[in-house]
Specification:
alpha/beta, Four Helix Bundle (Hemerythrin (Met), subunit A), Rossmann fold, 434 Repressor (Amino-terminal Domain), 20 helices, 8 strands, elongated, binds guanosine-5'-diphosphate, binds magnesium ion
Length: 447
């Protein structure tokens, strides 16, 4: 995993929130300090860091958590959103026959990245022609040729031609139109007039669909300035950040480039040809924070926000007037929120990380059973669980294809949830009880 230490520190922050006794000013201050330290250590710009934590603080104090969500979960969500926010926009990248120009300074990883990209195109069934337009160093041409052989794609070079634009023109003529064309260019030690002129003349004959700047993560924050300079000089459609595997400054490079406005398309995570990953800010943050694939979940969370039913159920939950009907609403909204494992990974407070996949499946099956039993109840029963004695329990069991002990298990689960809701949900004893119930095949409490 890239940005390992940043991820670790941020995950520790989330754990602190999940385990803390209450979300109060003291915890918030501590959390803000921890996030600042983590981001600064990853070389994220000081001002950017302060703005981010300022927003976390303000939102935690001013915004109200959506119905059915605790303050704890809400704070985690805010942190997620704000960190997501400094990584820029999602952008699509199409693997179809297109013309791609790779630019950048010396040693940043252009040639290697050209090979990696070629491999991804080929894997998706698009044939690739690599053009060696780094005409100044014969070694660079050999390097690209070797990569082409490894990837199994076509290659064009002209070792006696000194003009890069001429090489590109001839290379284009050498490949059929259904090929994706990747052009590797020469770097310089700094962005200078010569480099810009060369890139512009190449641009003139290639008419690239993508002009991509390749940047080494070790540049840290200065990657942002570099991106801006190239953007102004030749225009960019995106950036690839390489060597994220070896750099402690990756956070700085990613956030600074995002701030420059150029979307980050890929990240290089190793020297090997397969080590190039699409950069999807949303998924990246989810992984960094150890939260699984959050996007879908967050969208559904959003849907829930406005749902009156869920609102009412959670009000009932708080006031203790929580009925089986409310329980059904809760379980249904759990169902809507997608897989239970995702849900648990979203709420670290529920002890995620310790629960294995088979237990999760069990829990999910259990929830489904509960829902079918609830569907077999009469309105009277849904409103007042106390009327469910032996005879009714038998009828509900029969109606839903279950056994009476399972109905009793549901009623017990309902009682525990109701009790937990009496403001003692954070009480460790109840939590243990719920967790025990869950590992015995009962369900975990709704958040
Ligand atoms: P260029 O001068 O911009 O064409 O850079 P090269 O492609 O020749 O790469 C320079 C060095 O960086 C080489 O030793 C590559 O193996 C290495 N490199 C490129 N990308 C990555 C990456 O994502 N991770 C690591 N660890 N090394 C990389
Ligand atoms: Mg090169």
């Amino acid at each position: 995993m890239v940005l390992d230490s940043l991820g670790k520190s941020l995950r520790a922050v989330l754990q602190k929130i999940a385990r803390g006794s209450a979300v109060d000013d003291a915890l918030l201050a501590e959390v803000v300090r921890d996030i600042q330290r983590a981001l600064l250590q990853a070389d994220v710009n000081v001002e950017l860091t302060l703005q981010l934590t300022e927003r976390v603080k303000r939102r935690a104090k001013e915004e109200k958590p959506p119905a059915g969500s605790s303050l704890r979960d809400f704070l985690i969500r805010i942190i997620y959103e704000e960190i997501r926010g400094i990584l820029g926009k999602d952008r699509t990248f199409e693997f179809r026959p297109r013309r791609i120009l790779l630019a950048g300074l010396f040693g940043q990883g252009k040639t290697t990245t050209a090979g990696k990209l070629a491999r991804q195109f080929q894997k998706k069934g698009v044939r690739v022609g690599l053009i060696a337009a780094d005409v100044h160093r014969p070694a660079a041409i050999d390097q690209l040729e070797q990569l082409a052989r490894k990837v199994g794609c076509e290659f064009y070079a002209n070792r006696s031609e000194r003009r890069a634009d001429a090489v590109v023109r001839d290379g284009l003529a050498a490949f059929p139109p259904h090929f994706a064309i990747l052009v590797d260019t020469a770097g310089r030690s700094a962005i200078d007039a010569e480099l810009i002129t060369e890139l512009k003349t190449i641009h003139g004959v290639l008419h690239p669909d993508e002009t991509i700047l390749v940047l080494d993560a070790a540049m840290g924050q200065s990657a942002g300035r570099s991106a801006k300079a190239f953007q102004e000089a030749v225009g960019l459609t995106g950036v690839i950040i390489t060597k994220l595997d070896g750099s402690a400054k990756g956070g700085g490079a990613l956030s600074a480039v995002a701030a420059s406005g150029a979307p980050i398309l890929f990240v290089g995570t190793g020297e090997h040809l397969d080590e190039l990953e699409r950069f999807d800010p949303t998924r990246f943050v989810s992984r960094l924070l150890g939260m699984g694939d959050l996007q879908t979940l967050l969208e559904r969370f959003e849907d829930l926000r406005g749902k009156e039913e869920a609102q009412k159920a959670s009000e009932h939950l708080m006031s203790g007037r929580f009925t089986l009907r409310d329980l059904r609403t809760q379980l249904n909204s759990l169902g809507q929120m997608g897989s239970f494992s995702k849900l648990l990974s979203f709420f670290p407070g529920l002890g995620s990380g310790k629960i294995d996949e088979s237990k999760l499946n069990e829990t999910q099956t259990q929830l489904k059973r509960y829902r079918t039993m609830l569907d077999s109840m009469t309105p009277g029963e849904l409103d007042d669980a106390t009327i469910i004695k032996s005879e009714r329990a038998h009828r509900i069991a029969r109606g839903s294809g279950h056994k009476p002990p399972e109905v009793r298990a549901l009623l017990k689960y309902y009682e525990t949830t109701k009790k937990a809701a009496h403001g003692i949900a954070s009480n460790r004893r109840i939590r243990r009880q719920l967790e025990r119930q869950m590992t015995q095949g009962g369900a975990s409490p709704p958040p």
